[in-house]
# Entry
Amino acid sequence: MTYSFPIRGASLLALALSWSFAGAQNTGGSPYSAYGFGDLQYTTTAASTAMGGAGIAISEPFCVIADNPASFASSRQPELGGLVRPVFEATVRGSWLDRRTSTGRLRRADGEFMGFNIGVPFGKGRWGMAFGLTPFSNVGYTLVDKSSASGVDVQYEYSGSGGLNKAYMGLGRTLYQQKADTSGNLGTRLALGASFEFLFGGLEQTRRTIYPVGQSYTNTSAYASLVLRAPTGTLGLQLSTQVVSRARVDAHIARRWARWQERLALWRSEHPNEAHPRTDRPRREAAAWRATFGLSAGLPTVFSASSTDLVTLYYRNALGSELVIDTIPSTGTGNGTITLPPSIGVGVSVHDRRWLFTVEARRRDWAGLQVDLDGYTLPASLRASTTFSAGARFTPRMDGGGLQRITYRAGARYVNDYLQVHGDPVTTIAASAGLSVPLNWAQTNSHFHLTVEAMRRGDTGNGRIQENMLNLWFGVSITPWKLERWFRRFQIQ
# Structure
């Protein structure tokens, strides 16, 4: 049998790409998903995607950042990060794809549900818990190739589907947090976290060889499936401290306070008989710049793998009906394990009450993948994957109203993928921007998230495929507490 499942090696992907450049039709998802575990999902929420997928050194009070379980830890002060209120969030993604080869191009659109996350703070402002379900990878493609041998036309169809999902539950705790003083200094905060994760799913691929009706050749259909299950986990740390000296903070607060007093005096001179619509602003509003260091370490993952390989012999009659002759199990059918190496990610962010800037890097050595499964060998073309992300966030006033409470986000991401095609690495470049808009203009902590992401993967050189993608991310985070309009009690009279 000449069929090859993606976990075994690069043969299917190399052939698929060759067929694409030879004029084959691509009628489904990405041919890159035919390899390894499929297309890995580097981001799963609209808010995170808008910042280039960064999340290791970020913790938000009203969003779940699953990249680092230390971000689940609760905090009494929103400017320090951490969960403040219970939150439920869900995300969907729509994609428009423009795939190009040296011989042509294909356009298509699709959409998918990217999962949900639930975060709950507890333990008097120190503990936080989060759980959810998100995609880890997906496989989806259809390739059709036609050729001629000895004067006989033959058609080859290659298709794949499935993917892996990740269910997780994590805990975070603030181990140390200094209280704010009268000058607005928020001190140092240390948070640790851990999450238990369960990866599960299946990968399926089919290769069909189809001869014209009336020929004496037997058609074949080779089917391969791989069912994977694995418990794993992630450990996380976040250390936040103030990076501006107390003297500078005091001077800054004094200047802002003086300007406010001048504006207030001017307004009262012009409106002597009116009460000012706003009270004096608290001095703590001028919080100083802080720096947060984040560390996230993924544990090794040992998959329990079950494979099934079948070859079906059939022929087509004059009416086009397929009549099965026989189905033969392959020697690739069996049980075993596949071990995924650990991952590591580090990041740093600087922020105050309005602005945040962050950079981070992640790495997993896929070349260290270990396969102990009958009929399968270690893929020689896997390589270490590295991801670099940078993002920024701006909120005019966290405690304001209307347009002042909209959060603006932007970011970029560069990925050296774990795939190699014809000996060359596959790279991805993405840029994104988005908004987090309050669901009403009152003092609400529930938001609607909208993100636009432009992404390019691969290129058309040396027998490869370039994929240009425009993704629209839609997310909602609901924070049920007493000030939310839809959680108030109403009496019908």
